């Protein structure tokens, strides 16, 4: 992740850091989506495709948790940020769901994997019928988990905004726009979940312990997803397998985030003075949103 | 099972024993998920004790109580107000495009773009055009605020962020100059390539012409309709765009629409514009809502949404886009007939739910699960 806090000359106001958030009513048409939208690279395609399987359930769960957190907030400006966050996440979930439905309609059955994700977020991490203190604690615990996951979504968002190699490889333009619109909004709202956690609890131990759970589970779910998609891709050989060395290759080429980038993104979260605004570029995100075909169409209510 | 909202959300601990099937050997339960479920459940049990030393949530009050330091007539029907802290304290920093929420003496809250100097940390400046047929906010500013008046403001917040780049075209229409002026000045100070088109009805109606006169005249086009006629198209305004420019536009809706339509054919590349709040309610009729849990009984006038009325009484009600597409404010309807105006609910969902941000009632009364 580029940690370029833009250096401004003295007397200059610098770049926008925090912006008022709003959801954008985007829509995408997948009718023309090639099976391997990173041309001739099934592995890179499927590695990124895992996001379409993980995110709809995951982001709906974010919304569900944050809606429950709203009554706990005693800072109107933060509540405003949280409301913007919820709307953006809801649109992310729906947009990735569109890709998922396209897969299901075109011979790539994602349901077994998605059912598992739904069980994880709906049951294991779902509401447990608690009230009072216990209920409040479970809301805050899950807010801390969302903050940990948002550290990665901000990292991924910045990565995809920077990923010029995907353009050079001729990746599908609509898919790139989905990923970059989503990535840009992740960068735009990257501080909200963390600020909410700071407001509701903020203790270091809780922050790092939720990350200690979230990071390995996230990595594990991703690896399983790649393996599943490679094994079920109807155009690939029966014995097609996801191999670690494929990831080394795509990471090195810049078609996917590399394992080194992933590992490097983690330690900052454990620093005492960590804040999401220290990483990623709001300006770059906003600049992308000002030319994203989907975001521009949405802004003008067409 | 799809969204968490749609499943039984009061699942007890025992509820997740239905481990999902293995991905490959579909007849058996997935072992890894069994372990993961057990792990997270154990973890959740431990986390229950986290409340013991958890600091209480501290209420944050961001209200700033400022005083009007100076009121200045900037053009016909336009005044600017300089706001300062009564004891001269430093004010929160802001960036071009930011606005303030201003609470007027009547309790009305209005948003005004900051149009002063962002490097001046001791005063804010806003400018307001008097709209006699508006909603009364601007008239109140003109008629009641004077030097020495106290006002409460919140913010600054930025919904029109100004991004650093090498080439800009700034387009302002009338009072839309307010967020644009600090942007133009910042771009000029940075020494990048910029052009600025300022349209208005007549020179007399256009504020800040004196300040704009101090900028490089080769980069500025003052364009009063009295001299040039009403802009025929966005293309006319975009003509001065540097190659690959980023356009910042604030003005009346037809101006923004025109610029948007003609942008692809111009030399400009990206468009930022000041976003207007939720569109006005069309063909609304008044109705009544009862909130089942909080017991409130509320009247929704023809020109307001159910959400805006409910919010006043239930501040924690969930919503986001306020335009009926994000799905956040979905609410169960316990009685009454809904006039659905959203773009997100399926017919099945509509049978029992409504989006309170846009939808209304065809019956006199609605009873909601809130």
From TrEMBL, chain A:
Domain of life: Bacteria
Protein name, as recorded: Metal-dependent hydrolase
Species whose genome carries this gene: Halopolyspora algeriensis
Species lineage: Bacteria, Bacillati, Actinomycetota, Actinomycetes, Actinomycetes incertae sedis
UniProtKB/TrEMBL annotation, chain B:
Signal peptide span: none
Keyword set, alphabetical order: 2Fe-2S, Flavoprotein, Iron, Iron-sulfur, Metal-binding, Oxidoreductase
Record carries keyword Oxidoreductase: yes
Sequence ranges assigned to domain FAD-binding FR-type in this UniProt record: 61-163
Keyword hit for Metal-binding: yes
Positions of the UniProt region annotated as Disordered: 1-24
GO MF, one example: oxidoreductase activity
UniProt name for this protein: Ferredoxin-NADP reductase
Annotated source species: Halopolyspora algeriensis
